[in-house]
Amino acid sequence: MNEKLTNYLNGVFAPYDGVKSVSELKSDLHSDLQERYRELKAEGKDDETAFEMTIDSIGDIEQTVLEVANLSRSLERQVLTNLSASNLIDSDFAGVTAHKGNFTASALRGSDFTNADLSGSSFKNSDVRDARFDGANLTDCNLSTLDLANASFNKSILVRTNFSKSWLAGAAFVDVQLTDVNLSMTALTKTVFKNCVFDGVDFTSSDLSGQRFDGQIFIGVKFDRAGLKEVSFKDATLKNVSFQGSMLSKKYYHAIQTVCFDGAWMDKLTFAALKGMEADLSKVTVI
Question: Which residue would you say has higher pLDDT here, 168 or 81?
Answer without folding.
Answer: 168
